Amino acid sequence: MARRLSLRWLASLWIVLAMAAGLASAWIWMSSQQAWTAHLDRAYVAGLALHDSLENGGPLPEGLSRTRLEGAPALPPGWRETRITLTGSRPDLAQGSRLSLRLQSPDIQYPVADIQTLGGGSQAAGLASVTRTMARFCSDPRLYAQLDGGPWVRIDGAPLWGCGAAPTDLRLLAGAILASALGLLLVWVSEVSGAFASFAEALRDPRARNAELPVGGVDELRLTAEAVNAYVAQDRAALENRALVLSGVSHDLGTPATRLRLRSALIEDAALRGRLERDIDEMTGMIDGVLTYTRAEIGAEPFRQLSLTSLAEAVVADYQDVGLPVRLAEAAPRSAGAGNLFARAVARPAPEGPAMLMRGQPTALRRALSNLIDNALKYGREAEVTVDGDADDAVLTVTDRGSVLTEEDLARLTGAFQRGENAGAAGGVGLGLAIVSTIAAQHGGRLEFGRAEGGLAARVVLCRRWA
């Protein structure tokens, strides 16, 4: 696979390209501005030379020609005309020679207010301002001039102030180049930032422990993803090795445990025989508990579609078959909304009726529910199981009767090898709630506790579409 550029080199490259685009835009802008200034200056100088030719009869400047008319100029249909009178000294004083001008254009009406006298208040400067204004606007105008009531003269100056004489305005191009470069830079920054944000989001996902993170983006991000994937693979391999070792130990201990049970049956002292059998049960239970906890951490069981309600019914039925006080209760109706001025909130059952479909690991979920029921029977007198949820989450709730555990106890019991102070002589190694919490995390959920009427409620919240 081709090696991608690092973030440092890409950032440096983009900075250089951005600077080059800025310099190119500035050069194009200034060149276009300079060309327009030179164009307007030529038109202004031509106006000064035209005034000298009209007043003194001198030659016309290059690019201009004049034609004498027999009468006043006629305005073609649809054209617009602008009339201006310039005096000999100042345009606003009616004294000295008078120069009458008519500007006819098929496109625009020239704004008289925008025609400023540049370079002084003389009549020549006024005519130069007129020619400069004609050069400013893209049109093909006709200029007619009359000096002190003399004949009208048509001045043709398309090479100086016509549309074809105007230089190409590249200022919009310069702005487009600058905007494009800035847009591309922002897109690249957004892409890199989005890649790091997506990587962080994938890393926070608990499923990252069972799947490889996406490898892509800049070189630093790719190396980080590869390192994390290697670490996750190593961690998963360590867990699998631990489970394999524990499974082997559990299998190997089965034979001596069976021999111990057979030999303990030969002990005539019933009390001693009972204590020995309980020790054997505790030993095998401890191995099985650690093995189950490790398997829950690995989460190797595939996810499939299942009915959480049916699973809970099957688990509860197993406890009822041996006469234990465990029952399955219906979820309390939930309000469809807060209501309003015209209608009250209406209670409705849990969505999808009794099915409560979700994607999950059936064996792991059975283990989690069984552990909660065992804890409810151990620390309370009975267990009541409820299945509820909404469109996003499914909730398993196990409520006991008579439990006196505090919030500090509950926070402590979710750790490994922790048991309640009121467990007494009940069996167990303190991994039950830790296994439940791990299984809930494997399903994108969590384990919660709350006080209930007469006891304690343990709630397992599961994401219905986690995998």
TrEMBL record:
The keyword Transferase applies. Residues 248-462 form the Histidine kinase domain. Keywords: ATP-binding, Cell membrane, Kinase, Membrane, Nucleotide-binding, Phosphoprotein, Transferase. InterPro entries: 2C_sensor_his_kinase (IPR050980), HATPase_C_sf (IPR036890), HATPase_dom (IPR003594), His_kinase_dom (IPR005467), HisK_dim/P_dom (IPR003661), HisK_dim/P_sf (IPR036097), Sig_transdc_His_kin-like_C (IPR004358). Pfam families: HATPase_c (PF02518). It is found in: Cell membrane. Its EC number is 2.7.13.3. GO terms for molecular function: ATP binding. Its main location: membrane. It is an enzyme of class 2 (transferase). It catalyses: ATP + protein L-histidine = ADP + protein N-phospho-L-histidine. It comes from the Bacteria. It is a multi-pass membrane protein. This is histidine kinase.
